Amino acid sequence: MNPLTQFKRILILPILFGLTLVALVAPASATLPPGNTVQQWNKIAEDTVVGSGAFQGEGYIYMAYTSAAVYDAAVAIQGGFEPYGPPITAPPGASVDCAVIEAAYRTLVNYFPSQAGTLGALYAEALSNFGGCTGDGGAGTLVGQTAATNIIALRTGDGRMTPIGVTSSFPTLPPGPGVWRLTPPFAPPQTPWVGNVRRFILQSMDQFLPDPPPSLQSDDWVDAFDQTKAYGALTGSLRSDEQTFIAKFWSANVIRQYNRVGRDIADTRGLSLLDTARLAAMINVIAADSMMSMHHAKYHYLFWRPVTAINGSLDATAVTNDGFGPVPGYDDGNPATVEQAGWRPLLTTPNHPEYPSAHSTLTSAMAEVFRTFLGTSHIDLDIHGFDPSGPSGNLNAVRHFDMPNDLRQEVMNARIWAGLHYHFSCVAGVVLGRQVANFDLRHAFQPLSHRR
Known about the structure:
about 5% strand; disordered N terminus
């Protein structure tokens, strides 16, 4: 039997980027989040998606659905930009707020029917702020319904799998040195199907497929192995206290991190409703394409994680009888690397292959989104992340980034200091994320004056 067959359609533990997702507890009564209508429903979408237990790559697909519908609704009424989906002709006098509310609500309740009660209460409160959205004769509501219907139709049959967090089969490589296998705590392979979902803007999921990882006999491999071994260990690491803090800071949920950045930009820059909708769509649609491209590459190359390689053939506890190789594991066959039995990373290794780095891919794409939207390389952004002294899942710590490459470099370092990645994997992720973002930004969300 294929060793992965046993994992098909199994719900898997919510481990991604070393973070266990915490289910959202629905409020006893509806209370809209702060901000304009787009900010409110962006936060509602975020809470709904994260609360569902969706993995962060999987979750961005749902965030993209909602953000695209909201963007199309706003564009239909206020104009100025190319819609993502089919153009919508808005009736005269249509309320953009009512269109945004309707588009977000109808999209979310379609994909998360189990949350209809919570979403319905928020919807009712939102409508009450605009007189039930009847002042325009229901024109805004009609635009929002149309935008949601269009996105749902466009994405029907796109390869998204249900229920949330389900795994799938995927092509395997013959077991051997360098080949990925399950890592402690040995959760099944995380959502391989994400890498084969129909892209949002890209031409194909392998459009920017990175070059293969380096040979296990190369100097690049030895240098990366030694660096992660020395700086990424749970105990006995060369990391400074600050580096440990930074590694843990970037264990936060990235759906929450980058959508919060979008809402913060809307606040600090005083964005209009349309610009807020455009930024949210850019964040989530481009994040989805970058995460899907990254997943495609990960399951294409199936490269092994540091915890597997560094323990190698010395430690039976670093591997399990998963059908991917012997217990203990493989030696890399390179005399210049020294295995270390019992080596563990600072953060729990996510249950998907190594190459390229997911966080480096996503963050690089987001850095390009912020640079493009703001029209400057001086992005001057505060980003919220995990504070190890606070409760689980918090975003209480804040770090400031002046330039896009400052953000990229810190995340690359953080993943090495966390013991999750090699340097070359982080570099490949940064390149992939920038390529995906640049392509998507040239082909979507453009002003009408810049038609292709």
